Amino acid sequence: METITLTVSDNTNIQAHVGRPHGVPGKGIIIIQEAFGVTDYIRSIVERAAQQGYLAIAPELFHRSADPGMELSYSDYPSVQPHMQALSIAGQVADLAAAHGWLIEQGIAETMIAALGFCMGGRASFLANATLPLACAVSFYGGGIAEHLLDRTDDLSGPQALFWGGKDDHITPEQTRKVSDALTAARKPFVEATFSEAGHAFARTADAHYHEPSAKEAWALADAFLRNNVG
Fold first, then answer.
1. Architecture of domain 2-229 in CATH?
2. Which of 116, 158, 221, 230 is the most buried (most CB within 10 A)?
């Protein structure tokens, strides 16, 4: 694991965490944080992706409102709110483009780059798919897609995977249905799975939200989806 600094198109600097596979990488992935920063858990996903052969990068999306390396406690949501409020669609698009551009600079072809995100990052993964030439994107419990991003559905560049928790108190069945209906209407390829016994953040191993059976099944689907679409 290494830390690099990228210059974004708005002339801000963003810190990003990079995992490198053994040998020359032929594929890349943008790992997108939860609302608590690029935590140990998110860095473990970067390392997991590197072990699977991806050149993986996780940009710190709160860099305009927080010091580099900021991590917040999963039990301290009030401290998260100011950074969430400072986050803009335009800023995220610019940050994701910087991470994507870095992967291109490392020799990764556009057809071999994916995005994968969790919660806030799940929404940002959908946004990345709509604004970058991605091979595919994976969204774990991406809250806010139905409310803020459905007008971008026609712009999706690659297939989209969506994983929801059936007991998620933050994302309702009505919201997930709006997302799948929009993708169907736009004739965009997608995979959707709802894990009936899982709540929000069910893949996060770092706290009590973790639901191991659902997480294992979701990761098996995510890995297959990525293998089928990246290259």
1. 3-Layer(aba) Sandwich (3.40)
2. 116
